[in-house]
Design brief:
Oligomer: single chain
Radius of gyration: 21 Å
Distance between the termini: 7 Å
Order of helices and strands: HHEHEHHHEEHEHEHE
Number of strands: 7
Strand content: 5-15%
Mean pLDDT: 86
Strand order of the largest sheet: 3-2-1-4-5-6-7
Helix content: 40-55%
Low-confidence stretches: 1-45
Shape: globular
Number of domains: 1
Largest sheet: 7 strands, mixed
Length: 284
């Protein structure tokens, strides 16, 4: 929660104005010319993108107000996720005080419709092995999403050692080339940040993200502005349980994504970002 409310509202308002390219009205930032000027100057250019990104990055720490302090976060990337975006989000999670437990990469086979039989067969076998840890009514992709969540996440309030179930799922998914897991047996985390990449079949995107949301405390999915899969998550009702933020190609969008993680600790769901139906910034 932001302590200095006198700063929060104006900073947020200016950040949103800059992020969306809205020209600021008359004031100290407006070049009106002399009093003898025959008429007001018409601003035809949008704010400089470099300045906008620099501004967002500068005010981010004040907006975060250590909202992720000591809270573990697992980062999950989809195939085609932009490495620069992943690196920038990692830095912003740390700037908010979060503890990044690990970065996991979902491999192309897991989200390839042509590999559905493999994903389904392995998912059924693993669900039987970790009996009671997945929804018995779940279909192929929600099930595999829940299994990925067992490997990377928990529904508690702290990081937790990867137990036997998590270890078994990790080993099987890695062996099948469905998931990349870093060495060192990282802890599971209550919060999960999912970075979308190349376009997916929407049913696959819905299933995997929904499954992750079912087995974690909070999930935020982030993608570039108007990403079709992110739009689809909202249209299909996934944002009732999972928070989405678009605009990840900008500093403002990445700041909003991390604010989404802060919010997801206590409030699930919502569509935010440059074209989010619930607002540009997930505050409160």
């Amino acid at each position: 929660m932001i302590r200095h409310r006198s700063y929060a509202v104006p900073l947020t308002a200016v950040l949103l104005a800059l992020a969306t390219g809205v020209a600021l009205g008359a004031g100290p930032l407006t070049d009106t010319g002399s009093s003898a000027s025959p008429g007001p100057r018409v601003v035809t250019e949008s704010p400089d993108a470099t300045y906008t990104d620099a501004f967002a990055a500068t005010v981010a720490g004040r907006l975060y107000d250590h909202g992720l302090s000591r809270r573990p976060v697992a980062l999950v990337t989809m195939p085609g996720a932009d490495p620069a975006t992943v690196a920038a989000l990692t830095s912003q999670v740390k700037a908010a005080g979060g503890q990044l437990t690990a970065t996991y990469a979902i491999q192309s086979q897991l989200v390839d419709a042509g590999q559905k039989s493999l994903v389904d067969t392995l998912g059924i076998q693993l669900a039987q092995q970790v009996k009671g840890q997945t929804d018995p009514k779940a279909t192929t992709y929600p099930r595999i999403g829940q299994l990925v969540a067992i490997a990377v996440a928990n529904r508690g309030s702290a990081g937790a050692p990867a137990g036997d179930d998590a270890a078994a799922v990790r080993q099987s998914l890695v062996a099948a080339k469905l998931l990349s897991v870093p060495t060192g047996n990282p802890q599971t985390a209550p919060l999960v940040l999912v970075v979308l990449g190349s376009p997916l079949d929407q049913a696959i995107a819905d299933g995997v993200v929904t499954g992750l949301g079912a087995r974690s405390r909070g999930v935020v999915a982030v993608a570039p502005t108007k990403d079709p899969n992110l739009v689809g998550l909202a249209a299909d009702g996934v944002t009732r349980y999972v928070t989405t933020v678009d605009g990840s190609e900008t500093s403002a969008g990445r700041v909003a994504a991390v604010l989404g993680l802060v919010r997801a600790w206590s409030t699930r769901g919502g569509a935010f970002g440059a074209s989010g139906a619930d607002g540009a910034v997930p505050l409160g």
